[in-house]
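Changelog-adjacent note: as of this version, every example in the card shows the full chain rather than a window. The one below runs 304 residues end to end.
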Amino acid sequence: MSIRVNPEVQKALDEGRPVIALESTIISHGMPYPQNVETANKVEQIIRDHGCVPATVGIVDGVGVVGLNKEEIEEMGKRGHSIPKVSRRDLPIVMAEKSWGATTVATTMILASKAGVEFFVTGGIGGVHRGAQETFDISADLEELQNTNVTVICAGAKAILDLRLTMEVLETKGVPVLGYQTEDLPAFYCRKNSDGLKVDYAVKDPEDAARIVKAKRDLGLTGGILITNPIPEEYAMDNAVIDKVIADAIKEMDEKGIHGKECTPFLLAKVAEITGGNSLNANIHLVFNNAAVGSEIAKAYSKL
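Full-length structure tokens:
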């Protein structure tokens, strides 16, 4: 596999300093230009401010890049939806065609792992879609969490998903789901989920989380760890409101016959439209918060 690691990232890895991977789908598909680029740069700056090195992951001319430079992030933002979302199944095609690609959670984990990056910060992971009993629509992110040695810090699975079934699949695949200073599973826009779901273990601080990551690696257990971090209180949305909005968005999606990897971008855009942009603002700030918490965990891990 053709991979290019940014020299700054490689130097940090060689010196044992903490590196944080970031996905690029949030740039190409998450929000409009130039807000997408501004957000991506702000997340990188938060990571630097917390003493870590950011490594935004993407595919440029068929090469997997761990640590996109400023120009590449700008180009990714400008091209937007014209750049395909690349999951595991798409990776060989995009690389063979020497195309640009925006990495999902799954592909970011793959490339980060191959470069030796342990920690990855994102907004929310994919999971089991509502109605998956009929559609079998289950994100490849869950397979990657089972098989790839990367720790993912997020605000839970995306709120548009079936969180109960997502947790069941994660349990089956042996993926520890931790809550950062919470016993409740966060639900992306909301600090708690509507179903009363709990995480496997509540970690009290970055050192606590880092010790669990190290214990899994020392045991030689394959796969990732999911650390869920609730959205800050001031940006959290009401569960009843967001549940109604998502239900309406899913109904419209079904009526239009949208399925597969187009579901998530459609639903997130529709939710943002219905909430008057409040959900997008919440999304941005939960990513900022995850970047700060993820950096502190990575720093604690680097000292073990």
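Structural remarks: The chain has 13 helices and eleven strands.
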